[in-house]
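User: What would this chain look like folded?
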Amino acid sequence: MAAPDELFCWEGDWGLPSVSTDCLVVLVRVRSLKAPVQLRRPICSPWRSPGGSLPALRTNQNETLSRPSDIIIHLRKQKFNADFDLSAKEGADSLAFISLLEEKLMPALIYTFWVEPKNFVEVTRRWYAEHMMFPLNFFLPGRMQSRQLEKLRLLRGDEHLEAGEELEKELYRDAAECMNLLSQRLGSHKFFFGDSPSSLDAYVFGHLAPILKCKLPNGKLQQHLKSLDNLSDFCSNILLLYFPRDSREPSAQKAPAAPEAGDFDNVPNKRRKQFLSALFALGAMLSYALLTGMVSIQHGHQEALEEPPDPEHIGAHEEEGDG
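Assistant: Here's the prediction, encoded as structure tokens.
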């Protein structure tokens, strides 16, 4: 019997199985379809994934897929198709709403978590800095923010786009319109089409759940989402159905484990192991930095840090050339 595919995702928080929109989309697909995919322990180190980014699906043919759209297509080829029973009109509606999410909601999602000053400093940057390993936690969140700003400019078609009050109003207005349309389409139904989640349900959950569940200093977008009871209930329902353990666990800072009494009896050995572990981790991170282009070496001198690959790949399902 062939080995199952393996799925690598960003770690969860805020009562969600992952903090990544793309990871949430894929996780809903896998769980709702009961696909034979082995869920690896969630990680916060992109260099530990097969392709250097997250999410990552390593197939039993040793192929690595990262974009949600590619992973969903792979699942369909394995006869796990959530959209099999959709009519032609429902299929067209699904594609239209997914495009609407990309055009109207995704820019506001990027702005909310990566551009809005209070949210970025107090939530996004702090979360990644606390969960990433030293020394990447010092500079990678800032690099990720720069990459997200570039994505926002690309989505808006303005390479000179700058953050500000006017931009925020425009993005949040578009996002509110998108949410209103989604709310009208969902109505009083449990899912958007039929009695089980389709691809649209997975994409909607992946985009809305972080807004709903994360405690944000600037929660304007969150307030509007919470005013739409059916969309809020939709997200909560998906969590209870497919991620009951995560939905019951509030975000909390884990307390460090107390050392066992025997640890102090072998302090030299313990320190030696810690030192060797640190060297191994540093070597792995440097190798990752060199391979992905974050650091280059030329003529014996270390060059400036280049742009790292974005672990999130937010919204990549519609952009062929985007990670």
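The longest strand covers residues 5-8. If you want, I can go into more detail on any region.
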